[in-house]
Design brief:
Strand content: 15-25%
Shape: globular
CATH topology of the largest domain: Aminopeptidase
Largest sheet: 10 strands, mixed
Radius of gyration: 28 Å
CATH class of the largest domain: Alpha Beta
Number of strands: 39
Number of helices: 26
């Protein structure tokens, strides 16, 4: 059989990882499809198009017999994933029949080339090797692969590399995001499920294959140890997970490290780098919550496919515990054979990832029944912990501020494989009645850890594991201090400690309720401004020329009370409304007479969004994605578009997404600090890193144009860190009260905080008065400076005035120095000339997940 199978070198014309050669995704797809034709040991599945229309592949490699029985083997995995109700005999049979299922993904971050470039060689070996080890792997393991977790990015990187090959810019990073919307954040969408690629991953993980291990192949910097393998977790430990999952990670990691050492590979490290509790939004970390062993590899990078020379004295560590020894280049137990420097190539990366990948499969093949039994044990133990612990269940009732968003939350949970039940009848707990239609998530299920992490109020640890020796707090796991999805989405979830019974049915998917046009009306229709999806309807109708008004006070229609911000459709919009009503999920109530209330006519404002280079801005990409989901049109503005001025001619609102002043202005004095900190981490040490056309710079000219835009009546809408730019450059009578404060005195590393919204203000329409918002370490906190023009600053959102025992400032996460926030503003509308600057001291579109505050920005985009 091996004589009939084309090798990668034969097909591509070069060895994988060869100097200055990158296999492009379209050619890789062609090669995998050829292998599928040549061998009965491989099955290539096109899951569908990526964000930009390229094929997203899942590849399974095993014995021909296993490939033939693939549907049954999926079924075995599914039963062991949730073994409730199975007898011991049934479990034993499943373990005997099943196969260890190992999923590996490559190059999710597209500039981290090694994983995807390695895959053709690994597949070829899996298909053609005839030794005992290979036969055992094929017989006992289903080797699953996302060969390229980001096809769009691979093509961008490959084409950019080829364009500048042979120039001074050869091997440099892309000037823009390597995913249209989310860039590097694509592995922070594990529970948000906003990207189409995330849907593919989640469906394979939690609905179809239930793999036992997910190993994700990444890169880190030039000067790190050459290779990190295994479960790269350090303290603090993630709560709620079964300890067997952590043991497995060390188990696999030790075998991979051994095989790498056996092969003479230097600079291999295990057991450090990322906090176990952090980056739960990442796919390979979230797996621990699902009783799946989540592993990473991190390879030292070359300049893409161009070799890089590393001097011995340049070798240093990365983040966390690794710094203690890597700077000294000293051997330690988990780093016994340091690399001494020299040339480093993509081929080196390919070789070490291939050895580690094969070792992973070898370990699973040698211990197939142990791997399957471990999955069963974790599921059973987690179910028992959920049955005995508190809370006993979480309840999501129909009575929500935004019921449609609550439905979206439940849909995400169900898609992620969490068991969700719906109450068929009213039930009572401790004297409290819950209506039929309530969603109930019992903790007595294998996914208990995921349920508690995503729905349970979180208190991040504050101890020796989370602070440096001098007391400085350490950022949680390169991400957030809380992942409470319901708080991000603005959905009320009730924890219940007492055990209870009732009539409940398991739901597999959640469909949005059908909207309804209650009756025809000659006076028009009204619908709720508290629903995020109402804005989508408004944009659909406005694009069809329908007249819509916003109601500026609370009203009662047909016995239903609606707060200020409801939408009023004229009778001439009835035909257009009928065409979209059912799909909207919204109730449209008819008016029997003209509404006796203060209203104003609205229109879609002409929105421009600044987009810079310097590697792109993920926050801007997420803003694009969110606006598109709700039908807001926008125009991308580059530096030249803003600098030429006369912006009011084409725009009413210009958005500056969450960003640093340095990257917005592009001025040398601002960039200098950025190069020394964030830029250095990415290998960007000067503006000359990029070709001249990609050196973003609004500069004084662009700032002057934006000032003129505002003074002549425009609205500048700025998010999170970008507020510092607006405050400084526009001379606003507002200060960032936490700017330049030591982390020891103030620190809020991605936590949900409680706040109060002025929902009678037009920018606060539709919001609950008591809300929650995700605050990042970079988020400003506003104080309005005393002046004789204080009326020009309107506070729309503020933090509580003082410590309130009934409602603390911190909802979930970690907050140091809360007294510095009491009474301060989180959102300010500051008048400037004929226009205004809206300072939003948080990112309202953070990863497309913060549905609870979407409206605060949506309101700024309608007149």
């Amino acid at each position: 059989m091996s004589n009939k199978i084309t090798s990668p070198e034969q097909f591509f014309g070069f060895q994988m990882g060869a100097d200055k050669k990158i296999a492009r995704w379209d050619k890789i797809v062609e090669y995998f499809n050829l292998l599928d034709e040549q061998s009965d040991r491989i099955k290539v599945v096109n899951l569908g198009p990526s964000t930009e229309g390229h094929p997203m592949l899942l590849v399974a490699v095993s014995s021909a017999e296993n490939i033939k029985n693939i549907d049954y083997l999926k079924e075995v995995n599914g039963k062991l994933d949730d073994p409730r109700g199975l007898s011991d005999t049934e479990v034993d049979t499943l373990i005997k029949d099943g196969k260890a299922t190992i999923l590996q993904s490559g190059s999710m971050h597209a500039e981290e080339l090694g994983g995807t470039q390695m895959m053709p060689e690994l597949f070829y070996d899996l298909l053609t090797r005839t030794d005992e080890e290979a036969e055992r792997i094929r017989g006992n393991v289903i080797s699953l692969f996302f060969p390229c977790a980001n096809p769009d990015g691979n093509i961008m990187v490959c084409d950019y590399y080829e364009k500048y090959l042979g120039t001074e810019y050869e091997g440099n990073r892309l000037p823009w995001l390597y995913h249209k919307y989310c860039g590097h954040d694509n592995n922070r969408d594990a529970y948000g499920l906003n990207m189409v690629e995330s849907h593919y991953w989640a469906k394979v993980m939690y609905q179809e294959w239930y793999p036992h291990v997910w190993q994700d192949h990444h890169h880190w910097g030039f000067y790190h140890p050459r290779f990190l393998v295994g479960a790269p977790q350090a303290e603090p430990v993630m709560p709620y997970c079964d300890a067997l999952g952590l043991r497995e990670g060390a188990w696999y990691g030790a075998h991979m490290a051994y095989k790498l050492e056996e092969a003479g590979k230097k600079g291999v490290i295990t057991g450090v780098q990322f906090q176990t509790r952090g980056l739960i939004a990442g796919q390979s970390v979230m797996t621990l919550l699902y009783n799946v062993s989540g592993l990473l590899t991190e390879s030292a990078s070359a300049k893409l496919a161009t070799p890089v020379y590393v001097h011995p004295d340049q070798l240093a560590g990365g983040e966390g515990p690794i710094r203690r020894f890597a700077k000294k280049r000293q051997a330690q137990v988990n780093f016994p054979h340091p690399w001494s420097g020299g040339w480093w190539r993509l081929r080196d990366v390919v070789e070490q990832i291939k050895i580690a990948s094969w070792a992973m499969l070898d370990m699973a093949a040698r211990n197939k029944e142990t791997v399957l039994r471990n999955r069963y044990l974790k599921a059973i133990r987690q179910t028992e912990r959920g049955k005995k612990g508190k809370p006993y269940a979480y309840v999501i009732t129909p009575a929500q501020h935004d019921p449609l968003t609550a439905t979206k939350l439940v849909g995400k949970l169900a898609f992620l494989g969490i068991e969700v039940k719906r109450a068929q009848k009213e039930f009572s707990v401790d004297g409290v009645k819950y209506p039929a239609g309530s969603y109930v998530i019992f903790l007595a299920q294998p996914k208990m850890a995921a349920v508690k992490t995503l729905l349970g109020r979180t208190a991040y640890l504050d101890n020796e594991w989370t602070r440096s020796p001098d007391g400085t707090p350490v950022r949680p796991g390169q991400d957030l201090a809380t992942d409470t999805l319901n708080e991000l989405m603005g959905v009320s979830v009730k924890p219940i400690d007492s055990k209870f019974e009732g009539a409940f049915e398991v739901i597999k998917e959640v469909k949005k309720p059908a909207g309804k046009l209650v009756a025809e009306s000659k006076s028009g229709y009204i619908f709720d401004g508290r629903l995020n999806d109402s804005f989508k309807v408004v944009n659909q109708l406005l694009s069809k020329g329908v007249t819509i008004q916003r109601v500026d006070e609370a009203v009662t229609v047909g016995g239903e009370s609606l707060p200020a911000g409801a939408f009023l459709i004229s009778a001439d919009g009835e035909v257009a409304l009928k065409n979209i009503a059912a799909d909207s999920g919204i109730k449209f109530s008819p008016l029997d007479k003209k509404l006796d209330a203060k209203t104003h006519k609205i229109k879609q404002l002409r929105v421009g969004m600044y987009q810079r280079y310097w590697g792109g801005n993920m926050a801007e990409g997420w803003t694009e994605w969110t606006l598109e989901q709700f039908g807001f049109p926008y125009t991308i503005l580059k530096d030249a578009d803003i600098k030429k001025g006369d912006l009011n001619k084409n725009f009413d609102v210009i958005i500056l997404a969450d960003d640093s002043t340095a990257l917005i202005t592009g001025e040398e004095k601002d960039l200098e600090k950025w190069f020394e900190t964030r830029g250095k981490m990415m290998g960007i040490t000067s503006a000359k890193y990029y070709p001249p056309e990609y050196r973003s710079s609004l500069g004084e000219e662009g700032t002057k144009a934006l000032k003129s835009f505002v003074e002549e009546g425009g609205t500048l809408l700025v998010f999170n860190e970008a507020c510092n730019y607006a405050i400084e450059k526009f001379g606003l009578p507002v200060k960032n009260a936490v700017k330049d404060i030591s982390n020891k005195d103030y620190f809020c590393p991605g936590s949900t905080l409680n706040l109060t919204v002025d929902n009678c203000h037009s920018l606060g329409y539709g919001m609950p008065e008591d809300s929650q918002v995700l605050v990042l370490a970079s988020s400003p906190v506003f104080g309005v400076e005393p002046s004789s023009f204080s009326e020009q600053c309107q506070i729309v959102v503020r933090y509580p005035e003082e410590r309130d025992p009934e409602r603390s400032l911190l909802q979930s996460g970690w907050l140091i120095g809360e007294e510095k926030m009491y009474g301060k503003a989180a959102m300010v509308s500051a008048k400037s000339g004929k226009g205004k600057v809206v300072l939003t001291g948080f990112n309202p579109y953070f990863r497309g997940q913060t549905h609870g505050v979407f409206k605060l920005a949506f309101n700024c985009l309608l007149s």
